[in-house]
Amino acid sequence: MFASPASATTALNTITPLAADAMDDIILLGFPLWGWQIAVAAAGVLALILLARTIWNPTQKSLRAWALGNIAVNAGIAVTGATVRVTSSGLGCSEWPRCTPESFVPIDTGHAALNAAIEFGNRTLTFVVLAVAVITLIAVLRMTPRRRDLVLLAAIIPFGVLGQGVVGGITVWTDLHPASVATHFLLSMVMVFVTVALYVRCQEPEGRPQLAVGPMLHAVSIGLVVVGFLLLIAGTVVTGTGPHGGDAAAPRWELDLPTVTRVHSALGWLALLGSILATAIAFRGGASRIARTSSVSLLVIVVLQGVLGYVQYSLELPEALVVLHVLGSALTWVAISRLYFATTRLVPPGEEVSGEADRAGERSSAGSAAAGQ
């Protein structure tokens, strides 16, 4: 985002993938690395199951914690996926669901051991993400009284995780075609949006959504959701055209890299302008504290993400900064989603959101602006 395309073409010829020196398994304390990865993933799932006992009789606080965990793991696996890509480890396991035609674990993969370990490690993390999703669904189903809106949101998440696994398999089968890589990332971001919705709505009473701010701020938040998702799409196009394809033999889109980067950058600037506008309206229109906090958080994240975008291109796309940029993209999307859901609130039947002050504040702000012209 905001990245200058000046050095992007040069980067295509200068970036080299991270690889291990040998094809043999990496051995730690007498066990192959992939064995440790399975053990860590299994321990993580077991720990989640043990923690799940605390929400067998769920409270709003415990459900909120699990919803927050869903946001973290769904955004996090997108970042680890970027690590797979920039290290050229995407075909470290050449098959799916097996790692090789003969084995579910990385043995004799034909790739450097480190590349195989990185790809296999990302695959095992999927079980942790799925465990968090399933536990959250169980907690929602255990709520008394049961809320249909939360059950629907919680049910979408595990199916979305399974869908990510299927798309991941297609990505491997197509030798990391950029279209499938982009779909995999964007599906993760859709899941992030759903998990943010669950996190916000589980803190509110059951009811129908009504505006909690003035209509102007709500409209800007909708615009930011649209621009934000277009920004994510443009980022995947830049990725599919640029140097980090996940493997040296991965197909690339034959697009002009400077041109698609400029489009991505323009959308980034549009997101920045929308963030500034949302912050100004939130403070001048007397919006709620959460709406003001959400708008400021978004503005700060967008600025930092933009600076990072320019820095990574000026340094010719070092792998670490590319991964940080993907993390920034996920955080930007979380912040956009949070602002959007802060502009409405679930209201039980017979009650109304006291948003008149917000709307009056916006009219007052608009009137003051008109008077000053």
List the helices and strands and how they pair.
Elements: H1 8-14, E1 27-28, E2 31-32, H2 33-52, H3 60-86, H4 113-142, H5 148-173, H6 178-201, E3 208-211, H7 215-241, H8 257-284, H9 289-314, H10 319-342, E4 344-347, H11 356-371
Antiparallel strand pairs: 1-2, 3-4
Describe the protein.
With 373 residues, the chain is mainly α. The protein is built from 11 helices and 4 strands, in the order αββαααααβααααβα. It has helices at 8-14, 33-52, 60-86, 113-142, 148-173, 178-201, 215-241, 257-284, 289-314, 319-342, 356-371; strands spanning 27-28, 31-32, 208-211, 344-347. A two-stranded antiparallel sheet has the order 1-2. Strand 1 (27-28) and strand 2 form a beta hairpin. Helix 2 runs parallel beside helix 4 (113-142), helix 6 runs parallel beside helix 10 (319-342) and helix 8 (257-284) runs antiparallel to helix 9. The longest helix has 30 residues, at 113-142. The protein is flat and about 65 Å long. The two termini are 34 Å apart.
> Largest sheet, described in full?
2 strands, antiparallel
Beta-strand residue fraction: under 5%
Point out poorly predicted stretches: 1-23, 353-373
Mean pLDDT: 83
Question: What is the helix content?
Answer: 55-70%
Structural class: mainly alpha
What is the 3D form? flat
Number of strands: 4
Q: What is the string of helix and strand elements? A: HEEHHHHHEHHHHEH
Radius of gyration computed on alpha carbons: 23 Å
How many helix segments? 11
